[in-house]
Amino acid sequence: MISDREKVIVIDFGGQYNQLVARRVRECNVYCEIYSYKTPLSKIKEMAPKGIILTGGPNSCYEEGAPTASKELFELGIPVLGLCYGAQLMQLVLGGSVERATVREYGKTDVYVNTNSQLFEGVSDLRDNRDSDEAMTVCWMSHFDYISKAAPGFEIIAHTKDCPVAAAQDVSRNLYAIQFHPEVLHTVDGKKMLYNFVRNICACSGNWRMDSFVEQTVAQVREHVGSGRVLLALSGGVDSSVLAALLSRAIGRQLTCVFVDHGLLRKNEGDEVEAVFGKEGAFDLNFIRINAADRFYDRLAGVTEPERKRKIIGEEFIRVFEEESKKIGSVDYLAQGTIYPDVVESGLGGESAVIKSHHNVGGLPDYVDFKEIIEPLRYLFKDEVRKVGLELGLPENIVFRQPFPGPGLGIRIIGEVTPNKIHIVQEADAIFREEIAIAASSEGGNPSWMPDQYFAALTNMQSVGVMGDERTYDYAVALRAVRTVDFMTAEAAPIPWDVLQKVMSRIVGEVRGVNRVMFDLSSKPASTIELE
Ligand code: XMP
Questions:
Q1: Would you list the DSSP string of 64-84?
Q2: How far is the C-alpha of 132 from the C-alpha of 105, rounded, in Å?
Q3: Reported pTM
Q4: What is the pLDDT of residues 147-164, one digit of tens each?
Q5: Which residue, by CA, sits nearest to atom 3 of ligand 1?
């Protein structure tokens, strides 16, 4: 059981890097979960974590009403690491002082750390000064308040030009406070520091591995499901595909996957999903593909408003799925590909507000006759889901697929969706993706300009062009390619000019109905990633 597993907990004070902290801990092969700072102490005790990490946060800890922690949290005998706000809070609660600084420390900062501290063991000196116990390293700082006096019992183990207490420790109580952010990659030796905390100070054995996750989850699912039947809405996206593969390994043909092809997928995508999960594929499961394109096209005819299109596609999806599940009859379990960021973002884990407003298969449970929902991936981050996918033998083109919205090409065609426009956008998009793949592989697979999401969209603009000696009045395709970490903000990816030129000339030459190709330079905000 995951709940019995050796774990570290992250207590979230609303910092922007809370999920990153948990991911970094898991990269040290230690299981980690995020909880709000409001979590009662009794619950924390019950969980018996091997370590506790307090995150950063936007408040000033000395202000009335600011998120806080009780003194008892530091008296449980469990090692605690405070980061930024968490560090200041630890110091304040235990008798130190925190004040507003005259200068804000922000960005990459030279920090002098004492390498005799277990926390900073192995941190390299960027000046290459090997004779001293003090190493100069670069860390990511982002704070206005600072610890002006460490709490009694603490010794200072790091400082900067402007910050007298950049880190402090009380080894006898296993308490550590760091003003900077080791979880951010700009902190050169940040991973080492977190490793030192979770593996050495907390003495976690590092048994969180994806191969053992697969083995244990397969055993748990088998035991839980028994001889029951499980239904899964398979979209071909990373999460539902990995879930299908996992459930197939656990329960084989007790699993039925329903794949609704709404005719708004990328070129050949429906066939690719069928090739992996269908009769000819390597997985033991029941696969039902429903080709429902005409139904979706009929309902979308004449509709131009983006949110209306989204709604129609969502509703029709549920209807198709409902009809199919009626044919299958009652099932015992409905499987869902919920993953850990969904759990945290929906407010069940940490402190962050609800971020996602769009769901791929929202509302399905209301329409299917089942006893219980199972969500075997709900503890995993996306990169862990991908590792599980590889572990289960899923092809790389599925495991590393870029995100694709539930309403599909329906929201990549501005204005009315018609079969002809879908054809145009599928062809243009296939060319764009093909050329990006060729260019990327000629630069070793992952060049610095590689976008995190890229696609062709169809604008609703027709304009005059000339083809041979003929005047044309055709559509303009927009190429969108963005670099982003969280899809909340994004910048246009700097695709090399020659690649763009080649894509443009191929699209205009090969796709009928297009005489102009544009590259969308906009950032998010003010634009969004999708055009609708
Ligand atoms: P936007 O366009 O909001 O996109 O900047 C952010 C990320 O979300 C995806 N997206 C959607 N996904 N249903 C989905 O399942 C939707 O309606 C939807 N709209 C946008 C988008 O592809 C990007 O990854």
A1: TT-----GGGGGSSS-EEEET
A2: 26
A3: 0.86
A4: 999 999 999 999 999 999
A5: 528
